[in-house]
Amino acid sequence: MVSEKDIEEIAIKFTKGERPKGSQQIFVRRCRSLFGLDCHLITIVWSSLETSGILQSMPQKKTVHLMMALHFMKSYGIQTQLASMFGVDEKTYRKWVWLYINAIRKLSRFYVSENYDYYYIS
Fold first, then answer.
1. 76 domain residue, yes or no
2. Which residue range is the domain that position 54 belongs to?
3. Which has the closest alpha carbon to 32: 7, 49, 50?
């Protein structure tokens, strides 16, 4: 089981390599700007992927791969730049990003209702 502390340690590597000297709020804001979620919510997503059994089919289970996918969805930047940020080549980056994006998509059946009510404002 991955803890919030484990996620924080990975996030610290990508937020200037250190915890901000100011407050926890600065660190949370940096995480949200990089990954779209704070460390607590990333832990919940990881836990949901594990408990739903979606991660069982993954060749490797690393939280950094999930964070790559979250960062890609947040920034949607050039793969060469994004891959270098995580210290991998483009092919490896692309592989893990899309595996985890599809894994996150599979969570929708657990968290999104199929009974949609659409309201249109005229």
1. yes
2. 4-109
3. 7
